[in-house]
Amino acid sequence: MDGQPLISKEIEDIHSSATPGETQPRLDFPPYRSSLLRHPTKDLRHVDPEGAELFAPVFGQSDVDVLEADLTIQAGGEPIGERITVRGRLIDGDGRPVRGQLIEVWQANSAGRYIHKRDQHPAPIDPNFTGVGRCLTDDDGNYLFTTIKPGPYPWRNHHNAWRPAHIHFSLFGTDFTQRMITQMYFPGDPLFALDPIYQSITDPAARDRLIAGYDHDESRHEWSMGYRWDIVLTGSHRTPMETEEDA
Ligand SMILES: [Fe+2]
Question: Has residue 246 got a pLDDT over 60?
Fold first, then answer.
């Protein structure tokens, strides 16, 4: 057995022996092949937050232009694909808004291609789409991005491996030592069951929290499809986060 059947069997075996309520991704998840060698094997080194502030970059409200939240207007023409909006709230474990927080996103284009030298698979680059954007949450913790729905893309975890469509999210807390990274997925993706990154979270309810909801009230007449995805930073309904950026 090899390829996807082997990966799926390994995922099934791990899930069947997992402890219920394990809601964060496993750092060492063998079906996700590169996690074997690059997962941390030592305790995290704790950095003095105040010390980090002395050399970390700084930004303020005026450094983030509101237009940077629209990934469809970054070039001279319209990107190809299904225009979408993704709206949500950044909240803490008690449901309180997290205000003025920098949210950065990056994603593949509608053909599943990144503008990155390591992505050379034969899908077209869209000259009108960079796939990166950012915004600050408002006073009620809301964010909104306008973008193009990303396509699934192949990766080299195993033969015929494909990632479900996703948007990468980076969140800064109150200082740069609190950065968190995760991925948002789209409802109904047939690749969920096959994807070892998505499946590295063994708790099914926690995995579901990474999937945006289609929100018809958010869709705009003759313009865009709307999705809603709230991010919870702490507590029992915390959004699963990565410790490293993934493909
Ligand atoms: Fe990706």
Answer: no
